[in-house]
């Protein structure tokens, strides 16, 4: 009885497409597929996120990298620019026909660039399968007021054994 509201809410979500869904307008996809037994362990609306490659951000020690799926757009319809601390990706195509009718698409994505990124060295590439990759290498860490301190060997032990009780005592400096 307690699973009934969950199942009904999942059915309600399938009838109402969301414009915020990254797969909005791309067809029915796996919605009509025969559900597997393991599908009942997870809500259906989370299933597309497992194989999603819509936007992937990676920020590690070497670089800031963004992978963005733009396969519906031609290279001349995509624009990548920087303004201030942001990278902006814009893409737009006019109305064209596809297997479902006519469609026009447009999107704008802004990514905040981390402070330790070299903004002058940002590059973008577009793969043959429609994945836009933005590379932004990190700045080299500059050593500030760094100097070497020489080590002097004293040739004396730091602790010496006491004569009376055998406990070590501090050496005089």
From TrEMBL:
Keyword Coiled coil set for record: no
GO cellular component, one term: cytoplasm
Tree of life domain: Eukaryota
CDD domains assigned: metazoan_ACD
Domain SHSP intervals: 45-154
Basic and acidic residues composition bias: residue spans: 162-173
Protein name, per record: SHSP domain-containing protein
Species name: Bemisia tabaci (Sweetpotato whitefly)
């Amino acid at each position: 009885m307690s699973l009934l509201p969950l199942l009904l809410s999942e059915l309600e979500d399938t009838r109402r497409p969301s414009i915020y869904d990254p797969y909005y307008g791309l067809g029915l996809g796996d919605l009509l597929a025969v559900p597997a037994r393991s599908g009942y362990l997870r809500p259906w609306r989370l299933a597309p996120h497992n194989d999603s490659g819509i936007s992937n951000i990676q920020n590690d020690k070497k670089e800031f990298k963004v992978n963005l799926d733009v396969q519906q757009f031609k290279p001349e319809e995509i624009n990548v620019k920087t303004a201030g601390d942001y990278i902006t990706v814009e893409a737009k195509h006019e109305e064209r026909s596809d297997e479902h009718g006519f469609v026009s698409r447009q999107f704008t994505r802004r990514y905040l660039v981390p402070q330790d990124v070299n903004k002058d060295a940002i590059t973008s590439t577009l793969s043959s399968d429609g994945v836009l990759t933005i590379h932004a290498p990190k700045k080299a860490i500059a050593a500030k007021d760094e100097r070497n301190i020489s080590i002097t060997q004293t040739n004396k032990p730091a602790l010496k054994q006491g004569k009376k009780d055998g406990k070590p005592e501090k050496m005089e400096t």
